[in-house]
Amino acid sequence: MVYNKTQRVKDKMDSRRERIIKAAREIFTEDSFQSMSIKSIAKKAGIATGTFYLYFTNKEVLVETVVQEMYKELMGLIKAERSKYESVFDKLQTSMEVCIKVFIREKGIAKLLLKHFPEINMAFNNKFTEIEKSLISLVKIDLDELQDQGLIPQQNTYISATAFVGTFRQVILSWLQEGQPENLEEACQTLIEYNMRGLGKIS
Amino acid sequence: MVYNKTQRVKDKMDSRRERIIKAAREIFTEDSFQSMSIKSIAKKAGIATGTFYLYFTNKEVLVETVVQEMYKELMGLIKAERSKYESVFDKLQTSMEVCIKVFIREKGIAKLLLKHFPEINMAFNNKFTEIEKSLISLVKIDLDELQDQGLIPQQNTYISATAFVGTFRQVILSWLQEGQPENLEEACQTLIEYNMRGLGKIS
DNA sequence: TCATTAAGTGAATCGGCATTCATTTTTTGT
DNA sequence: ACAAAAAATGAATGCCGATTCACTTAATGA
Predict the structure, then answer these.
(1) Which has the minimum average pLDDT: A21-35, A93-107, A113-127, A170-184?
(2) Contact B194/A159, CB-based, under 8 Å?
(3) CATH code of A52's domain
(4) In terms of domains, do A173 and A189 share one?
(5) Fewer beta carbons under 10 A from the terminal one: N or C of chain B?
(6) Chain B CA closest to residue A168
(7) Could B198 and A195 be called an inter-chain contact, meaning their C-beta atoms sit closer than 8 Å?
(8) Chain C nucleotides with an atom closer than 7 Å to a protein C-beta
(9) For chain A, how far is it from start to end, CA to CA, in angstroms?
(10) Claim to verify: residue A72 and residue A40 sit in the same structural domain
(11) Where is pLDDT greater, at B31 or A100?
(12) Cis bond leading into A181, ω under 30°?
């Protein structure tokens, strides 16, 4: 015979799952990827290590979930902000600004989305590469549109988009790792200008 | 009593050390960082695993040696080529071109110098960050000079240099991982143009 | 309340890899 | 050729953290 969970139990389990994800995010943000062990996550979430495996098949799935969650969060904010503008330039610019704002508020997201973590198995690492790829292809869509509108000269938009993302990535990593530039928001403006010139914006 | 090594033995040991480094480079280039185990290195070098430790105190030192060697190799080539030009723009441009040429010839160097490998311990990882930093500061030196000469407008050269390196890094990583762009040398020209415009080159 | 099922526990297991070390082989100097 | 010293060997050790599992506790439904 099969027993059905009551709502109370369902709720408890849901909140446990949430707490595990939250614990993972916290440990990742505060400490490092390396110290994100199942034991420490379980401890922070207030459960036994074995319990973890009742909620996630393995560590990989957990990290994947966390990454996905952070990515969706960021994308949601970007989309909301983009919808306020008509011009593709403005959309592109605001996308970057939102990214920077989120990264400043939650450094963990920046680390997770921009750093590489080959310490995890290969197959999984593709998740990270995937996110980077999707950032590039989002920029590429904007660039293609700008090109169609004749607002930037003919160019290989894949390379331009990659370069574009590369400038941000490198500066943000420097900010994360070296603490330079001190003011990332200011640097963001500089970067936007750099890239607009680089794209050959016709103004 | 202490015995002195004969030249023959010295030579044998020197060549063994070389072969270990070579084996490490090969495994790294052909396979991946993960599969670069002492056992596999020793096997490829034709020695027993224990013998490795007669030549290197530990794995960290070996990798550091390999990285240093590749970095010096690249820098040597860049310096040689730069010396042929007078204009800082030309020096900057040729630096990039040499990098790309070397990266095409030896993908392992590109991976080692541009990827991050947090799977190795922290203290060591700084070696990689260090290299990235030094690439940026080399570019910054050129940009400062260009600015002094009034060939580019006033700007935060640290950010510009970081952005500059970022564009290359991102495109080269895409080339390594996605196989796109197919022709890296062609992309290099595009990138140089992108960055020249981005810097606001006054021509 | 009670028998049954499900959730929770954490010590023990397992796997992978760097490092060590007792033993063997080679080299050295007489 | 021989004894001392150095180099080489690779099986054994140690470590570390993910995953498992025999057992305990809680929840379910009659």
Answers:
(1) A113-127
(2) yes
(3) 1.10.10.60
(4) yes
(5) N
(6) B163
(7) yes
(8) 4-12, 17-22, 27-29
(9) 72
(10) no
(11) A100
(12) yes
Q: Which nucleotides in chain D have some atom under 7 angstroms from a protein Cβ?
A: 4-12, 17-22, 27-29
pTM comes to 0.88
Which string of b and e fits B154-176 if b means at least 16 CB within 10 Å? ebbbbbbbbbbbbbbbbbbbbbe
Name the nearest CA neighbour of A163 among B164, B95, B109, B184: B164
B187 chain-A contacts, CB cut-off 8 A = 156, 159
DSSP reduced 3-state for B16:
helix
N-term to C-term CA, chain B: 73
pLDDT tens for each residue of B94-127: 999 999 999 999 888 888 777 766 555 555 566 6
Show contacts of A119-124: CB within 8 Å, 24+ apart: A119/A33, A119/A34, A119/B118, A119/B119, A120/A60, A120/A63, A121/A60, A122/B32, A122/B34, A124/A60, A124/A63, A124/A64
Q: Note down the domain range covering B36.
A: 1-56
Give CA separation, A3 vs A9, A51, A52, A56, in Å.
12, 20, 22, 22
Q: Give the other-Cβ count within 10 Å of B149's Cβ.
A: 12
Give me the helices (H) in B56-121, please: 59-82, 88-105, 107-114
The residue behind tokens 């991102």 is B170
Cα torsion A74, A80, A83, A85 to 10°: value is -80
A80 touches strand C (CB under 7 A): no
Of A108-117, A138-147, B51-60, the poorest mean pLDDT is in A108-117
Residue B125 belongs to domain with CATH number: 1.10.357.10
| Record: contact B156-A190, CB cut-off 8 A | yes
- Tell me, what's the pLDDT at A123? 52
Interface contact flag, A163 B191, Cβ < 8 Å: yes
Q: What pLDDT is recorded for position B122?
A: 54
A203/B73: higher pLDDT: B73
Judgement on whether residues A159 and A87 belong to the same structural domain of the protein: yes
